[in-house]
Amino acid sequence: MSNYQANEIKLINTSLIDPHPDNPRKNIGDVTDLAASIKANGLLSPLSVVPNGERYRVIAGHRRLAACKQAGTGAVPCFVLDLDPLQQLEAMVTENCQREQLTVLEEADAIQGMLDLGATTASVAHRLGRSGDYVRDRAKAASIDNEVRAVRDDFSQLTIGQLVAIARYDGRPDLQKKLAQAAGTSNFDYTLRRIERDDRERQWIESVAALLVEPANGFNLIPDPSTGTPEETIEKIREQNPAAVSIHMEQVYLWTRRDHAADDEKEARRAAEQAERDARRHALEEYAAASADKRMAWLHANLYGIKRAQLIETTARLGLLQIIDPFPDGFTDALTNWNDHTGSREEYEKITGITAEDAPTAARISLQTNDWPLEAASILAARFEWFIDPTDWTTVNDTSRRIPGYYQILQDLGYTPADDETSHLDQLIHAISEADQRDEENNQ
After folding, report:
1. 65 φ/ψ angles, rounded to the nearest 5 degrees
2. What is the mean pLDDT of the chain?
């Protein structure tokens, strides 16, 4: 769970263990299946708890605790830790981030909680294995008031970019609500640019107004009536104070009006272009999900029928394909870490038919039998499927460079790509070749 060492491990009745009030994850979800598994097999992984008077608070294992209580489990094994409040929050944030269970907003609130308890940005970044900017962005997102968060039920699902943009207008809930309502749609960028432009104009007008009202300048500030045509407005200002208007002010005023119209045209074009990009991204996401399901369905239906010798060769090829990690603890993450990670369990279930909950136990048992090549190939394929993201089909990176090799391995086993897969694969191979050529030219 963390680098914190347990002082002791002991059996504690679940009736004496409470959820931690500062748990970053606000919704633990449905634990019915987990409760059934615990009822049948017992709790395989101990909980981590801290003393709280005569009771205990869970640090790691909130879902397991809820499942144990639902299953009617009595005493369960627990690691008893001695942690101060900051360490407790650090441990919960670290565990949840490793499991990828927190929404961006939950993580942001938890990080702000750590900062409130005295942690520095650098220490939080080090603890989470993230950059300082990563921590600072989430601290900004945590500043968004509940009044703004209540604008939509799915506010916690917004991206960090959207949240940072909303947080930028702290103290102006009207603008924050407008941005929150537009988030997740093609209108978000358009709305943000309009607000940014209006804000720049407001600041410019305020600075000019401050200059004009200085007694030493000899100018009087006349408010814009904002009615009629520009010519009618200027005439009205002349009527109020002829000495306050010059040909230069008319030119600035008329330019500002025309600039608004030009900006509106640009914004409309940008909004249309963004909508087109969103549509392409949505289509790509649908394709990536469909092609992944197709591959794993084929593996589920055919992998068990492959000869043992070919499975051993496939395992070696998949292992070599994944041997250079895109990032630490990536493709070759130890099998024992399945207790702490959800990564690739769902893909493993689609390939083997074994439930994600039972994946670690089933995998360990199968790897000790004569059928280990089938199990190893299933695990490695599941790990690779887990890492493929829709953007990997259009962006040259460590993962995308492995996709052609992965398809070659599948085709050698008998898999036949569909036409759309072949088309996307050809485009990706072409993009990789171009990127390699650019790198070679830059290095000459």
Report:
1. -65, -45
2. 78
Residue in the block written with tokens 């330019």: 255
Q: Look at the pTM and tell me if it is higher than 0.85.
A: no
> Is there a domain that residue 95 lies in?
no
Residue finishing a domain among 25, 57, 90: 90
pLDDT confidence band for 7 (50 / 70 / 90): low
Q: Are residues 191 and 173 in the same domain?
A: no
Q: 330 in a domain, yes or no?
A: yes
Does residue 116 sit in the same domain as residue 234?
A: no
Q: What is the CATH number of the domain that holds 79?
A: 3.90.1530.10
Query: What's the pLDDT score for residue 210?
Result: 63
Residue 164: which domain range?
101-182
pLDDT at 411 over 90: yes
The pLDDT confidence band at residue 298, using thresholds 50, 70 and 90, is: very high
Does 1 reside within a domain? no
> What is d(CA 189, CA 277) in angstroms, rounded to the nearest whole number?
12
Report if residue 2 sits inside a domain. no
Q: Indicate the number of domains in the chain.
A: 4
Which of 92, 115, 116, 96 minimizes the C-alpha distance to 104? 96
Ramachandran quadrant class, 79 (left: phi over 0; alpha: psi -120 to 50; beta: rest)? beta
Q: Print the SS3 string covering the chain.
A: CCCCCCCEEEEEEHHHEECCCCCCCCCCCCCHHHHHHHHHHCCCCCEEEEEECCEEEEEECHHHHHHHHHHCCCEEEEEECCCCHHHHHHHHHHHHHHHCCCCHHHHHHHHHHHHHCCCCHHHHHHHHCCCHHHHHHHHHHHCCCHHHHCCCCCHHHCCHHHHHHHHCCCCCHHHHHHHHHHCCCCHHHHHHHHHHHHHHHHHHHHHHHHHHCCHHHCCCCCCCCCCCCHHHHHHHHHHHCHHHCCHHHHHHHHHHHHHHHHHHHHHHHHHHHHHHHHHHHHHHHHHHHHHHHHHHHHHHHHHHHCCHHHHHHHHHHHHHHCCCCCCCCCCCCCHHHHHCCCCCHHHHHHHHCCCHHHHHHHHHHHCCCCCHHHHHHHHHHHHHHHHCCHHHHCCCCCCHHHHHHHHHHHHHHCCCCCHHHHHHHHHHHHHHHHHHHHHHHHHC
CA–CA separation, 275 and 364 (whole Å): 48
160 and 26 assigned to the same domain: no
Conformational region of residue 171, where left means phi above 0, alpha means psi within -120 to 50, and beta covers everything else: left
Tokens at 292, concatenated: 């992944």
